[in-house]
Amino acid sequence: MYMHLRTNLPKPTMELRGFPVPREMQSFPSWNVYYEYIKAYAAHFNLYKHIKFLHYVTSVKRVGNVWKVKHRHILKGEVFEEEYDFVIVGTGHFSKPNMPEILHEKLFKGTIIHSHDYRVPDVFTNRHVLVVGAGPSGMDIALDVAKYSKSLVHSHHSKVNFRTKFPDHYIRKPDIKEFNETGVIFVDGTYEEIDDVIYCTGYEYDYPFLDKSCGLVIDKHSVIPLHKYMVNINEPSMVIMGLVIRACLVVAIDAQARYATALIKGNFTLPSKEEMMSEWQRQADIIRSKGRPISDIHFLAEKEDQYYEEMSEESGIDRVPPVMFKIRTMDTEAKLENLYTYRNYVYEVIDRNTFTRRLETETKTANNSALP
Q: Are both 108 and 86 inside the same structural domain?
């Protein structure tokens, strides 16, 4: 978590069910404020007593009709093995940096880090900095560093039409062709001298503790096959949480947790393995027919609200209100308009379908009823 990090979604979409975010919380809270909210949630629901801290899971294996789970106490070195009926994998996928392989990188005499290790921008004061990647972290870190750096070179191939007016020392570049000792040559043949490189190139899916008996195919960009983006089709007593991309992630994980709970309690029955596989294959075929990589199988994007409806219909859990997707849609447009100002908006939920948005300094609110 870097010093100036704030959430890139407004607080109504960062709220966990049954535990309202504090009214005084900033519309786009800082990382430390939101971290305190998460800890307060855990304390409120007395969750700490259920957590084995300092235990590192080393193996999850399917043996017969049970899951055998091995874990090691980090300090004492003791190893434990236990059996479970269900396994929920909730480690996320933002731990192992995805490092690009670029020609002659080892020749480069400057520094190279991944956004995973980025903390403070002032160490780049008066430096020539290259940021690689234009996802949420790439855009956020580029603007953060640009306040201090002598030049900010931004290499990416995103087709997103950002309308932000960047500072004069912000230099947009295409993908990197190769490094040399003092800088970078880009695929268009241009060259920039660089002191420091920050790879904002995402993360790999990394579950080294999952044995092949789990029945999943895992590579660094995808985990397949999953029903409803979460249930292991080959071994449906395993659920993988939080793999959806381009969504209100907190809302989505909260819904997935409620779905998984209903499944474990026996409140509903999954479709047959054949039905789940057929549905998954249909999604995969659509992606491949568009010439897209199978990693797109994790994208929700415009399907987010439909996903919540389908989860509710299948499991009986309360449906995520459509207003959440509507807020994300407007927030996305605000990001495209101006990356410097989109966090100045305050979003307030009126009902399941309606919200208001205003600037923090405004006293009047404007309803979004004109939205499609």
A: no
Residues 312 and 340 in one domain: no
Structure tokens at 63: 């043996």
Instruction: Determine if the pTM surpasses 0.70.
Output: yes
Query: Residue 229: which region, alpha, beta or left (left: phi > 0; alpha: psi -120 to 50)?
Result: left
Ranges under pLDDT 70 in the chain: 362-372
- Provide the 3-class DSSP secondary structure of residue 213: helix
Q: Which two tokens stand for residue 40?
A: 């307060």
Compute φ and ψ for 230, nearest 5 degrees: -150, -35
CA distances from 358 to 40, 269, 332, 364 (A): 28, 44, 15, 7
Question: Does one domain contain both 74 and 114?
Answer: no
Both 176 and 307 in a single domain?
A: no
Which burial class, exposed, middle or buried, applies to 329 when counting CB atoms under 10 A from its CB (0-12, 13-18, 19+)?
Answer: middle
pLDDT of 1 reads 83
pLDDT recorded at residue 360? 87
Q: Tell me how many domains the chain contains.
A: 3
